[in-house]
Amino acid sequence: DNNIELPGSISKEQLETDPSVANAGSLNRNSQRDFDLYRFALQHSIPLVNGGKADFGASFQNVEMFHPLPFALLRSDEDNAAISARVQQKLGSNHSLGYGGLASWGQSTNPRFRFAGTTGANQGTQSRDESNDAAGLELFIQDSVALNDSLDFIAGTQLVYARRENTTTNIDASGIRTALADRSADYTGFSPR
Q1: Which of 106, 185, 189, 88 is nearest to 144 (CA)?
Q2: What are the residues whose beta carbons fall under 8 Å from the beta carbon of 58, sequence distance 6 or more?
Q3: Apex CA 181: angle with CA 184 and CA 78, to 5°?
Q4: pLDDT by residue (tens digit) across 122-131?
Q5: Phi then psi for 23, rounded to 5 degrees?
Q6: Fewest CB within a 10 Å sphere: which of 79, 85, 89, 179?
Q7: pTM of the predicted model, to two decimals?
């Protein structure tokens, strides 16, 4: 758990007079950024018979945030996951080949709320709804040859794909929803490594 009180902006004179003072609007809404973070990760290596090795990994992370500010109460729930594999093989005394990949996924929901009441951080009706989804894939291969004790020749390539999606909707005080954004994009890349 991380709990951070946000004092808001104050003048230089206020800071010099009392460094512990907070902005009145921030005090009124108890501005803060509190979040819970949970992370789980695994990694495992397997030696290969030719002197190489294979590395495998997996991870998952969840972050939940409670973030009242003077103008709105922000909440967020974010999940991220990834898996990876990498193999390094010896092809001779001075030659090796590495290859592998990484796949990742993430999603977040970020609702925004009005306040219930004129003071405090009590959640009122929802004013905005936003969701984001992301996925990615990276594949690579790299060949390495030691030409002598101080010089290696390395050639490789990398292929990357990513997808991003965002949906944002405003919700007025009577509950009428107006779409602000509904977009997605795909990105690809191919490059030397």
Answers
A1: 88
A2: 41, 42, 81, 82, 83, 84
A3: 70
A4: 888 999 999 9
A5: -60, 140
A6: 179
A7: 0.78
